[in-house]
Amino acid sequence: MALDAEKEAEIETLRASTATTRRATVPALEELLYKPLPVLDQGFVRVIDYMGDDAAIVQAARVSYGKGTKQVSNDRGLINYLIRHRHTSPFEMCEIKLHVKLPIFVARQWIRHRTANVNEYSARYSVLDREFYVPDQEFVRLQKVERKAATQQASLFGEAAPAAPQVTAAQSTTNKQGREELLERDAAAQVLRDINGISNRSFTTYEKLLGDEERPGIARELARMVLPLNAYTQWYWKVDLHNLLHFLALRADSHAQYEIRAYADVLMDVLQRWVPLTAAAFEEYRLGASTLSARAIEVLRRRLKGEAVSRQDSGLSAGEWRELEAVFPELGGL
Amino acid sequence: MALDAEKEAEIETLRASTATTRRATVPALEELLYKPLPVLDQGFVRVIDYMGDDAAIVQAARVSYGKGTKQVSNDRGLINYLIRHRHTSPFEMCEIKLHVKLPIFVARQWIRHRTANVNEYSARYSVLDREFYVPDQEFVRLQKVERKAATQQASLFGEAAPAAPQVTAAQSTTNKQGREELLERDAAAQVLRDINGISNRSFTTYEKLLGDEERPGIARELARMVLPLNAYTQWYWKVDLHNLLHFLALRADSHAQYEIRAYADVLMDVLQRWVPLTAAAFEEYRLGASTLSARAIEVLRRRLKGEAVSRQDSGLSAGEWRELEAVFPELGGL
Amino acid sequence: MALDAEKEAEIETLRASTATTRRATVPALEELLYKPLPVLDQGFVRVIDYMGDDAAIVQAARVSYGKGTKQVSNDRGLINYLIRHRHTSPFEMCEIKLHVKLPIFVARQWIRHRTANVNEYSARYSVLDREFYVPDQEFVRLQKVERKAATQQASLFGEAAPAAPQVTAAQSTTNKQGREELLERDAAAQVLRDINGISNRSFTTYEKLLGDEERPGIARELARMVLPLNAYTQWYWKVDLHNLLHFLALRADSHAQYEIRAYADVLMDVLQRWVPLTAAAFEEYRLGASTLSARAIEVLRRRLKGEAVSRQDSGLSAGEWRELEAVFPELGGL
Amino acid sequence: MALDAEKEAEIETLRASTATTRRATVPALEELLYKPLPVLDQGFVRVIDYMGDDAAIVQAARVSYGKGTKQVSNDRGLINYLIRHRHTSPFEMCEIKLHVKLPIFVARQWIRHRTANVNEYSARYSVLDREFYVPDQEFVRLQKVERKAATQQASLFGEAAPAAPQVTAAQSTTNKQGREELLERDAAAQVLRDINGISNRSFTTYEKLLGDEERPGIARELARMVLPLNAYTQWYWKVDLHNLLHFLALRADSHAQYEIRAYADVLMDVLQRWVPLTAAAFEEYRLGASTLSARAIEVLRRRLKGEAVSRQDSGLSAGEWRELEAVFPELGGL
What we know:
The structure is a homotetramer. The first copy, chain A, has three domains: 5-131 and 230-287, 2-Layer Sandwich (Gyrase A, domain 2); 137-226, no CATH class; 294-333, no CATH class. The first copy, chain A, has 15 helices and seven strands. Chain A has helices at residues 5-16, 27-30, 54-61, 72-84, 104-110, 137-141, 143-154, 167-172, 185-210, 220-223, 241-251, 258-274, 276-287, 294-304, 318-327; strands at 19-21, 36-39, 43-51, 95-103, 117-120, 232-240, 290-292. Chain A has a five-stranded antiparallel beta sheet. Chain A is flat. At the B-C interface, α5, β5, α7, α9 and α10 of B face α5, β5, α7, α9 and α10 of C.
């Protein structure tokens, strides 16, 4: 990810100009304002603006005239309480605005989060640069395993896999022989050559279709149809803190596709700088938490009483039992 | 809750006229279409229309050309999977439309669920009938306890209670002396007389402000300002199944205020008729489920290994420990 | 609207503390940050925070690395273009957060705008102060006229008036005898006494129901049901600029109820300080604009060609013709 | 657009099974339920389900116990009134669910309408068929003109074109020499060969990356990144009538890209079958309507008074003047 000199200069100009404000301000986040934070091979996240901080959440929760509570320890207690009990509206009172450069297939997943504001760079009116995502070779070597797992899962439902984001990885993590099934280094290199080759050829056709001073072309909005899904696009994305947490709960998760997770991971860092109390509560009560079904609770209660419980008499499906064991490895022990 | 003859007749006309359709149809729900289902003293819920059924969820999840899967057992398995893994979009593919009559203070809680369509009877243009909610005497007797609990909770945050729906009841359930603190029967009767008295007086002033053929009055939109919050209003409310489940998860909960819970309870019955597989999954994986924080999981794991764990060395707050014990009474046992 | 000394002090503390920021900053808006701007007899609007400015809209529209365009005149041109062609997403990139104190019946209209974030002061957990709205006497004198107009409109639809916000005023503005039908000064004074009397009595019952140290009471969440709709509530309300403009287009309009318009008028001033280019475009292309139907366009075209056009051969309904004449008084002239 | 025999059979099974319902039913729409309505070369729209009809809008607007009004003429009057005065909530009370097959670049525009429910066929778990969109040759010949116009527009803003959907076509309609600048028939044929060639090659690489029984491949979610934007995808899309009208106002417009307009045109036909009164009102008061700015109104008023008005003394920009003349060709006449 390297920007040309003109863009670098524009960013430096923005970073250099400061103002005095009465608004809630977060120095740790100011530090990286406007800077491109690299993601994948050519993508980035830039924090453009933000509204509010941890204290603003407390202030809104209490509909107060001044700041939140008098002490940080009180703020922490209330934020923990709010996260724990899923009182979402105070978190909606903070907002962040990002400039993101990302492959189109990632953008297609990302935009499914509808409770956000988006302004995308338009390939109807502008020409896209020859920039596309090519995965890392080591990462590609791990892919075969995942594919097998996906196929396996599909059979659960008789025909095709459900339109379900978490299926693949959920399986692959339980696939003990994963390591042995790595793609050969040569095969992985070939994959990269294939991706590179077809992506370049697609861009070449795109440029040809656009025409030039010598040769007439077709409209940009039409020519773009030959671009590949790994072409990079850009957008401004603005979201409130509650919906950002929801995005992160789904996308910073091990079941998310690697490429969008890479963006979510960078956003986790941004979160920690911006609202450290909320970030800590989020990790304790959401990311690190687990939801147990009525039957799973029953299983644990029986085990706590000292009873032996088997999968068969638990009422849980094989998948549920596996997920429960992943959280409580002690379960099988009795 | 009694409707006048004209309205009864309108409803009967609607119920009597049927048509042939190719759409997904649910006989158990058709049975009660348009009928007012009584709630509180004068309120109701009427199911006006619905779209989809359990099979339609599967059909959408699979983006299929025909129905869902071939067998109900497959539909059940997929629906359980979708609810369990919080794949919400297939549930958004079903929709229900209700006509609800409810006290204004309940309407004010209800409307906080923004992801729904609402058309409310307008007191700007129409005159409201003299109808207001008066609680049941036995119910009023239980109230004092809750108030004490709320005050107690408030002190956690130093000054005022947080804008937090679940506080009161969460506390009151742990208040062991509850029973002894019932309001005297006489005091409760006085409460009802007070509510009745002021509500009637407010409606009388409202009617006076409106004027009549003899005496000029002021605009309806202005006169309504003296109406009490227990006056009944009405609306059409349309929501998709995913957002209905979210509404029910919050409002069919013991922490919700009694009056809105009364509506949620009726809607739970509607849910069971409409989408029985989804209703069952919802009870297993949401209503009957519990979310454990990272530290709570640690506590349980230590106990499963046979270690003694006290509140003090658990890292949990008093409130968290109490909530964990409510789910796992065996916890304290060691 | 007078705040107690403690709140004044909290506000002063907030206003006194400033920080340095790299974010887009608007000095004209900073000036009134946190200050209560009075509305009605006891209400207010306080600007708590904001994100973005006119340049940020351009910056988002262009998905740019630096600021918007190089020159203000270019920014103005683009903003006019965006408003004119209803490109809404760039305006969603600015956000404002307000603390509002308002009568409950106004809050009930306001919350119908669902695309915003709200945190309301909770009468479930807190006791409301004895504060209620009483209109101005001169304003009350004008009310009778409006009511007549509303009744008249209702008959258009055979039975009751539609649930339609603009009906009343639309009519009243065309009601030429309005002036003569003012409420007598004495009658208006009586109206105020009635509103004051019943509101005070409702609060007295409310306080009685709550109980005190001597006498047991009922839960706050239950006691509040006797409060009148003119009681003041408070909330934090956060909205993006696009949705704020939509709110203003509906509520700063002459058809809106006077009380919510009073808030909209204050927000128009805030808008002009915050994003002056957008505010100007909004007045030119939305507030001052008019949408003509296909048939209304036909009428104007015929008149431009010099033809005489009567209501009868225009194809317009009486209401449409009246609205067209209101915009083009010259129409009838031929 | 041809479906295989299995899918045809599934659809026939659905169409053959009917039920009795008390719900509002629209025979004209029932007729085409589940049938694929062809769009572009391989796409389709299938109506899967619907809720409500014209009468249901009236019923909701009046929060009534029975049907809407007694007579169709009253329903028509109220629906016209509601559309004209932008009372949107009654239209939100109807809902439609579609199964759509569409090129990915169209899906990317479509999904910008956030107020809808979507379930897309997942290329993370399923393999996409070799189906991609290739435009019609005559259509391609018209493209060059549009591109030139876009470039021209861009210069208005100094650097790049704004992210503005309507720019291109707005310009091209005023470009009088359009006809002469058609692409040569040979050049157009070459464009099609290029699109076909690269699309096929992309799918071949995709299939290679997936591997087969002999050769290991990579995960589907990763392999899909080489697919072109003209590959066909599918989704279930559910939307309420108000938001469908908003979609159609933007996408059935001459400024929309041809390919999404093709879908909007089919949906206009669906609309007319489903809610004929609403469809007529929509054409009269939205599609055929025009919004005039404050200054444009001033221009017309002056002309109606017989004054001469030139672009220069109108206060309108060149673009605004051109747009006003497009609606009122008589304007220049004086």
